[in-house]
């Protein structure tokens, strides 16, 4: 994005139209399917709190960020898995026993990578993005979290994958018996549109990382599935409460603290992660709309981005899932007596994106009496005073339970979260 020109402008419909105009001629080169691949993963059962089906991390997130949703409205994964994808990036995912198994999150990730590579290879799209006007750039900068169209499209593809894997926790209560059938059923049932329009920003990424979903699916006579009436009502109530929380913080910041709107956003979104940037800027009484789901008339034709992304994702997933073989391997838990060198106390958390994440990671480690010597948000690096390899393994498990993916490998730069 340019640093001069028009001031950033918050306008969701205009931002959606800019993205639609970029995507309509073609979003990604033809996907090149990966070769058949065997992917190994480690697996650990989630540990619910006594008398509950939720883990402590799930309960805390529910109580703080999902009001007025009840615990009995939430389905939890039964197992957490960890694996390294074909791009060499460590991943954490979840599945529920009796469902479709670990193949869904693993094949989903391979599908996301395939579509990311296709996006990167689309030279015509790159050319269109390079020719954006200063006015269009200002709208994207003022409206979206990621600003750059390429990153917005990348995160949109990833969000589609998360939606598939997260709803797969409910697969046993649907008529779909295979991963490919489930993916097609999700698309044909309009579930992705329901996620785009009914969920609130941050809910999907945060609840996905914790292996939980506040949805009940109802099978229809035609074999499709729909959100239950209670689910629709609860999601709306959660969204309304989140919007009101964001507006309340903004009113206090601007009227009581005397901050400008940009200063308030910088403090309470970028620094403290207490509000959704998009909701904070939303005009009072306005119902938010997903950028990808907004319809537009372009060159006399009806167009929106979401169906295009979902069709591409579903087509790629149904072909890739048969090319991936998964195998569970034992996790190396380490020793209680072996000593750790200085380099063994360094690890990385690729999905640590804000100061709230820093507080969470620090809190998890300190709750285990593990001192944190350094934590850097830019490099994602953490230096902790582990007592032994097994102590480090247990700390990593606790961080995964909190929705993070600790790794000993220096991570590649990652896209930030946004709502497309």
TrEMBL record:
It comes from the Bacteria. Transmembrane segments: none annotated. InterPro entries: Heavy-metal-associated_CS, HMA_dom, HMA_dom_sf. Keywords: Metal-binding. GO terms for molecular function: metal ion binding. This is Copper chaperone. It comes from Nocardia terrae.
């Amino acid at each position: 994005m340019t640093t001069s020109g028009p001031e950033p402008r918050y306008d969701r419909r205009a931002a959606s139209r800019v993205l639609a105009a970029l995507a309509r001629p073609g979003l990604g080169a033809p996907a090149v399917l990966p070769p058949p691949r065997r992917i190994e993963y480690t697996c650990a059962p989630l540990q619910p709190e006594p008398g509950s089906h939720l883990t402590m991390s799930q309960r805390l997130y529910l109580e703080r960020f999902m009001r007025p949703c009840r615990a009995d409205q939430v389905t939890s994964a039964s197992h957490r898995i960890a694996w390294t994808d074909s791009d060499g990036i460590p991943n954490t995912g979840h599945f529920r026993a009796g469902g479709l198994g670990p193949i869904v999150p693993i094949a989903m990730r391979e599908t996301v990578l395939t579509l990311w590579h296709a996006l990167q290879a689309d030279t015509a799209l790159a050319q269109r993005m390079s020719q954006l006007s200063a006015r269009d750039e200002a709208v994207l900068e003022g409206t979206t979290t990621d600003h750059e169209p390429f990153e917005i499209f990348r995160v949109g593809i990833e969000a589609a994958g998360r939606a598939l894997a997260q709803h797969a926790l409910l697969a046993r209560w649907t008529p779909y018996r295979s991963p490919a059938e489930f993916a097609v059923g999700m698309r044909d049932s309009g579930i992705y549109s329901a996620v785009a329009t009914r969920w609130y920003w941050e809910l999907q990424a945060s609840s996905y990382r914790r292996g939980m979903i506040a949805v009940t699916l109802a099978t229809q006579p035609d074999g499709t599935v729909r959100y239950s009436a209670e689910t629709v009502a609860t999601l709306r109530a959660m969204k309304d409460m989140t919007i009101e929380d964001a507006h309340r913080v903004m009113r206090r910041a601007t009227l009581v603290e005397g901050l400008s709107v940009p200063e308030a956003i910088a403090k309470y979104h970028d620094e403290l992660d207490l509000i959704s940037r998009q909701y904070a800027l939303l005009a009072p009484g306005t119902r938010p709309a997903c950028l990808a789901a907004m319809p537009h008339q372009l060159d006399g034709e009806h167009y929106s981005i979401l169906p295009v992304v979902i069709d591409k994702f579903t087509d790629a997933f149904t072909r890739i899932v048969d090319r991936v073989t998964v195998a569970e391997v034992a996790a190396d838990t380490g020793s209680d007596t072996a000593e750790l060198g200085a380099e063994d106390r360094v690890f990385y958390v690729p999905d640590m994106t804000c100061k709230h994440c820093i507080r969470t990671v620090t809190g998890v480690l300190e709750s285990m009496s593990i001192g944190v010597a350094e934590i850097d948000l830019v490099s994602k690096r953490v230096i902790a005073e582990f007592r032994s390899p097994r102590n480090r393994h247990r700390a990593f498990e606790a961080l995964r339970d909190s929705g993070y993916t600790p790794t000993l490998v220096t991570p590649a730069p990652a896209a930030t979260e946004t709502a497309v």
